[in-house]
Write a structure and sequence with these properties.
Blueprint (H helix, E strand, L loop, with lengths): L1 E7 L3 H12 L4 E5 L25 H14 L3 E4 L2 E5 L5 E5 L2 E10 L3 E3 L15 E2 L2 H4 L7 E5 L3 H11 L4 E5 L9 H8 L4 E4 L3 E8 L2 E9 L2 E6 L2 E4 L3 E3 L29 E3 L11 H23 L1
Parallel strand pairs: 1-2, 1-6, 2-3, 6-17, 8-15, 9-10, 9-15, 10-11
Antiparallel strand pairs: 4-5, 5-6, 7-16, 12-13, 13-14
Helix pairs in contact: 1-2, 1-6, 4-5
Bound molecules: NADP nicotinamide-adenine-dinucleotide phosphate.
Length: 305
């Protein structure tokens, strides 16, 4: 059996693409490696910038998007894609030991948090070093933690952790944060968040196999924060490993595609955080999904003719 559209990734881009593909009555499969849909939005405690649903939790938004696509008849398989063959009229994807065929493919695999690359990070991962405040924050109730980064993710993580932790150090390598002003104001007005600006994380120290401190570099000097958790939020990297060598990537490693989401391969479209774009938000991912499904529909209609 050959699907009209196979969508890799069940985040806002992939799910929006599924909604639009189903409204075009195309046989649609969504492959998502995680048991829950939503992608990176699952890491957001609260999403306050998706129109119409102020303050919705990332979990609820993911569930709602999936329910919408399911109601319209999209099929879902929860399995990690191990291989994808993009070229040719029939695209092939291997996932969970099975092989799926599609006439078109929408790559909506998103991005993952980047590693910081300091000593102690790898060794103490899961033992106090985390990349997801919403997933792991509860383990640090009443404790002192540090968040590293200056973008939306770091600001959101700091605000989320401040609800349960005793103290949150927000460590940023510059004086200016790049995250949304509204989040900056909230952070500045939160009593148990201490801003540590112009400091570069140098290493993460441990005791008894668990995080016990964060060493910082400040000019030629150094400082130490006694913390039991270090949350790293220093940007994202696109999930493109499966497609490397098959599709054109931009200099930063994102899939090169414009607003029409067309990639360098016929019948293959890229939507959401994995695509070259200016603004990576849920709302732009959803818009990409719609565009990708529309481009796929035009492609399929041409092939059908
Ligand atoms: P980001 O916007 O790329 O910010 C990464 C931050 O980490 C920057 O402040 C950067 O510092 C810092 N950084 C990078 N490498 C570092 C290093 N080696 N050492 C120390 N600091 C380092 O990443 P993000 O916050 O993960 O956000 C990714 C995208 O998702 C953005 O487009 C963001 O707007 C979006 N997002 C949106 C929401 C929302 O709207 N609710 C929530 C989360 C994420 P510099 O500033 O000095 O470069």
């Amino acid at each position: 059996m050959c699907y009209d559209v196979i969508i890799l990734g069940g985040g806002p881009a992939g799910l929006s693409a599924a909604i639009y593909a189903r409204r075009a009555c195309r046989k649609t499969l969504v492959l998502e490696e995680k048991p829950l849909c939503g992608g990176q939005v699952l890491d957001s405690h609260e999403v306050d910038n998706y129109p119409g649903v102020p303050g919705v939790s990332g979990f609820e938004l993911g569930e709602r998007l999936k329910a919408h696509a399911e109601k319209l008849g999209a099929e879902f398989v929860s399995a990690q894609a191990a291989k994808a063959v993009l070229g040719g009229a029939v695209k092939e994807v291997e996932a969970g030991g099975k092989r799926y065929e599609g006439r078109s493919l929408i790559l909506a695999t998103g991005a993952r948090r980047r590693e910081l690359g300091v000593p102690g990070e790898k060794e103490l991962r899961g033992m106090g070093v985390s990349y997801c405040a919403v997933c792991d924050g509860a383990f640090f109730r009443g404790k002192d933690v540090a968040v590293i980064g200056g973008g939306d993710s770091a600001l959101e993580d700091a605000l989320f952790l401040a609800r349960g932790c005793r103290k949150v150090y927000l460590v940023h390598r510059r004086a200016e944060f790049r995250g949304a002003k509204i989040l900056q104001e909230k952070v500045e007005n939160t009593e148990n968040i201490e801003l540590v600006r112009n400091r570069q994380a140098a290493s993460i120290g441990g005791e008894g196999g668990r995080v016990s401190c964060l060493e910082l570099r400040a000019g030629s000097g150094s400082e130490r924060l006694d913390v039991e958790g270090v949350f790293i939020a220093v940007g994202a990297e696109p999930n493109t490993d499966l497609f490397k060598g098959q599709v054109k990537l931009d200099q930063a490693g994102y899939i090169a595609a414009g607003e029409d989401t067309k990639t360098s391969v016929e019948g293959v479209f890229a939507a959401g955080d994995v695509r070259t774009k200016q603004l990576r938000q849920v709302v732009t991912a959803a818009a990409d999904g719609a565009n990708a499904a529309a481009s796929a529909e035009r492609y399929l209609a041409r092939e059908d003719a």
